[in-house]
Input
Amino acid sequence: MKHLTILPIAVLFLSAGTVKSQAPMTDSDVASSLQTMISANKALIDKQQKTLDGLDQLGQAAQDLKTFAKRS
Output
């Protein structure tokens, strides 16, 4: 039963013709897109580095707390 429903749909899509892609990008469009991605990646890396620095400080504070707790 499923084959009877899928077959007409498949034939319809296959006979619809070729699918045309978007207009090709120019070199300046590609360069602009790459520059946008590079700047977004740099911003993300900076944010991640700040987070890692904060976690390192938190880990060091926890280690210091353990050291002080053992002395008491």
In short: The CA atoms of residues 10 and 16 lie 10 Å apart. The radius of gyration is 29 Å.
